[in-house]
Specification:
The protein has about 160 residues and is mainly beta. It has a domain at about 45-145: Jelly Rolls (Sandwich). About 15% of the residues lie in helices and about 45% in strands. The chain has 2 helices and 11 strands. It has helices spanning about 1-20, 55-60; strands spanning about 30, 40, 60-70, 70-80, 85-90, 90-100, 100-105, 110-115, 120-125, 125-135, 140-145. It has a 5-stranded antiparallel beta sheet with strand order 3-4-11-6-9, with no helix packed on it. The protein has a 4-stranded antiparallel beta sheet with strand order 5-10-7-8. It has a two-stranded antiparallel sheet with strand order 1-2. The protein is globular and about 40 Å long. The N and C termini lie far apart (about 50 Å).
Length: about 160
């Protein structure tokens, strides 16, 4: 099992490092002739707020594996009844190491009940939410938050 987990961790790091490779032809940068700023796209993620950083909010339930190259990888363990307050993930992935039932409440107040099967994986956009283990089993998740710079729309 240890070898499997180490292999998974290495594969994830290689995959996400590849995401930081130079742009492809469909992602051509444009340069403003008045500045030296490079703009890759006009989308933006919310400004970083340490008070909403998942690692800071989930620290009592988390074990950090890495924080390098704009990627934070950590394991979150929630026992039945455990909850984490509102926090913001940038683009991120989740892998369910040990399944269970979670209630997720988004920043806008929407609530979802998730039955997470062991072995499921998800790729998610930037999201702000809180969560609670409402099941009878411990839930373990491998989270990978991808902090990549995005230029703000400068119109």
């Amino acid at each position: 099992m240890k070898f499997f987990f180490q292999s998974l961790l290495i594969a994830a790091l290689v995959f996400f490092t590849a995401c930081n490779n130079p742009e492809t032809s469909s992602e051509k940068s444009t340069v403003d002739t008045n500045t030296t700023d490079t703009i890759k796209d006009n989308s933006s993620m919310p400004d970083y707020d340490p008070a909403l950083d998942p690692w800071n909010v989930e620290a009592p339930f988390a074990k950090k594996f890495g924080d390098t190259l704009g990627i934070k990888m950590f394991e979150v363990t929630l026992k039945p009844g455990d909850s984490v307050s509102m926090h913001r993930h940038p683009d991120h992935t989740l892998y369910v190491l040990q399944g269970g039932k979670l209630a997720i409440t988004t920043e806008g107040g929407g609530r979802q009940i998730l039955d997470l099967p062991t072995g499921a994986g998800f790729v998610n956009p930037t999201t702000t939410h809180s969560g609670k283990n409402i099941g009878t089993t411990t839930v373990r998740l491998l989270a990978t938050d991808i902090y990549r710079p995005r230029a703000k729309n400068r119109e």
